[in-house]
Amino acid sequence: MPGHDASRLPLIVAITGATGVIYGVELLRVLKELGQPTHLILSEAAGMNLAIETDCSLDEVRALADVVYNNKDVGAAVASGSFRTRGMIVAPCTVKTLSAIANSFTYNLVVRAADVQLKEGRKLVLMVRETPLHKGHLDLMARAADCGAVILPPMPAFYHRPKSIMDLIHQSLGKALDQVGIEHDLFRRWTGHGEETRESRRTPA
After folding, report:
1. Rounded to 5°, angle at Cα 137 from 135 and 139
2. Element holding 87 (H helix, E strand)
3. 21 near 11, Cβ under 8 Å?
4. Which has the closest alpha carbon to 161: 127, 200, 123?
5. CA 8 – CA 18 distance, rounded (Å)
6. How many CA atoms lie within 13 A of 188 on its CB side?
7. Alpha helix (H) residue ranges in 88-134
8. With contact defined as beta carbons under 8 Å apart, do 171 and 152 qualify?
9. Is 48 in contact with 54 (CB distance < 8 Å)?
10. Residue 125 in contact with residue 152, Cβ under 8 Å?
11. What's the pLDDT tens digit per position in 5-30?
């Protein structure tokens, strides 16, 4: 559409019940700080994990998003391809959610919204949280990738010299935001081995 600012389209954030719910919560915080509009879907199990893994309440997490949907509301705006979005990040993504997406089994709003991203050719990033992986898991990832999803498990990197757990979380979230074209400074990017060595020498241990 002429004159349309794609950067103002909302990003869908889905938080499902895998361990690592902090990835979804922190993603919402980062996007709010960046001034990026977000539409949130929380699975029922994600709400349980919030209480287990964080000190955040459901109301606090919901307040980080511009719009919040009930996961059972398959008639919500994000269930239609005519509702324009920037894409979707599922953080974290359970294997159950991965399986439903890979098989187009749209039994809830998370999966329906994800299916819409795929059919409309928009970015769908799945931060799958499971280990170890058996062949069934790998087959599901391959199937989702064949449909157009980006499989982006939150795997920690260390070239940016992380000093805290949050540094590791931000690096994974930065990789996810790169996929949907959102600028950020969540981690120091690799600029080459020589530059990294010079930087290390300038930085006290």
Report:
1. 65
2. strand 87-93
3. no
4. 200
5. 29
6. 12
7. 95-102, 109-119
8. no
9. no
10. yes
11. 777 899 999 999 999 999 999 999 99
> Is there a contact between 167 and 160 (Cβ–Cβ < 8 Å)?
yes
**What's the whole-model pTM score?**
0.92
C-alpha–C-alpha distance, residues 68 and 39, integer Å: 6
Q: What Rg do the C-alpha atoms of the chain give, in angstroms?
A: 17
- The residue whose two tokens read 């187009």 is 104
Among positive and negative, which fits the CA dihedral 115, 8, 73, 178?
positive
Q: Measure the CA–CA gap between 152 and 177, rounded to whole angstroms.
A: 11
Place of tokens 């010079």: 198
Give 86-107 pLDDT, tens digit per residue.
Answer: 999 999 999 999 999 999 999 9
Q: Answer yes or no: are the C-beta atoms of 81 and 6 closer than 8 Å.
A: no
Contact 18, 130 (CB under 8 A): yes
